[in-house]
Write a structure and sequence with these properties.
The chain crosses the membrane at residues 48-67, 74-99, 128-145, 152-177, 189-219. The protein is mainly α. Helices cover 75% and strands 0% of the residues. It starts with a helix and ends in a 6-residue tail after the last helix.
Length: 235
């Protein structure tokens, strides 16, 4: 028998922990030129921190889903769009979201709104091995964890367990998703919130976790490769 309340409660705890870690990271990465940093953060240290913290939180969520017997279908696994169809849909959605994000950021910049890219620049590797770790480990962990939390758990499980409208949950989870990216500045929060809602809509329509994980990964990977790897700026 599924213990919905236990799973939703643990999901809430993980969400609060993630937002607290995001706020702490935002303060630690304060780029105020007047401030003297307490520690010098390397890209390798930051990558390890991200992979470890989000990997641990993902492990908690997966263990909670198993322990409480949440149906895989409620989490978008083995239901809805699957296989090559899900991969194709995720690829199209991811490329579209990447282009929309870039155009939105460029438009905001032209209008005088700041879009803080400091965190991405700090995470950018300076070696081939670092790029392999980023693209092959860190970004997949981030994409799977954030989609499992903000889409599968906060939308799929809550809708299945309590009959709440998935579209209402899509709005609420997207707001939390945006708040969790506060290090990107106010404009970044707005753009991320819109991106999060499109991902949420993709999850609701396709009922597939794989679709949104692929899309999320492509958005992040393309941003790193295009900006930090190739040095291309849309502005």
């Amino acid at each position: 028998m599924t213990e919905w309340a236990t799973f939703v409660g643990l999901t809430g705890v993980v969400t609060v922990l993630l937002l607290a870690l995001s706020h702490a990271s935002q303060e630690a990465l304060d780029t105020d030129p007047e401030a003297e940093p307490d520690v010098e953060l390397s890209s390798g240290l930051l990558l390890a921190n991200v992979a470890l913290s989000q990997g641990l939180l993902l492990g908690v969520l997966l263990a909670a889903a198993w322990y409480t017997e949440v149906p895989l279908e409620a989490l978008g696994i083995g239901a809805g769009l699957t296989g090559m169809g899900a991969l194709a849909a995720g690829t199209v959605l991811g490329i579209g979201l990447y282009l929309g994000s870039e155009l939105g950021g460029a438009a905001a910049g032209r209008l005088g709104f700041e879009y803080d890219e400091g965190l991405r620049e700090l995470l950018a590797p300076d070696s081939a091995g670092g790029w392999a770790i980023l693209l092959g480990l860190v970004l997949p962990v981030i994409a799977f964890f954030e989609e499992f939390l903000f889409r599968a758990a906060l939308i799929g499980a809550v809708a299945a367990g309590y009959g709440v409208s998935p579209w209402l949950l899509a709005v609420l989870s997207s707001m939390l998703f945006a708040i969790g990216h506060g290090a990107q500045g106010n404009t970044g929060i707005l753009v991320t919130g819109l991106l999060g809602f499109v991902l949420a809509a993709g999850f609701v329509v396709t009922e597939s976790l794989l679709v949104v994980v692929v899309a999320h990964y492509l958005v992040n990977a393309l941003e790193f490769v295009v900006h930090e790897g190739l040095g291309i700026e849309w502005t």
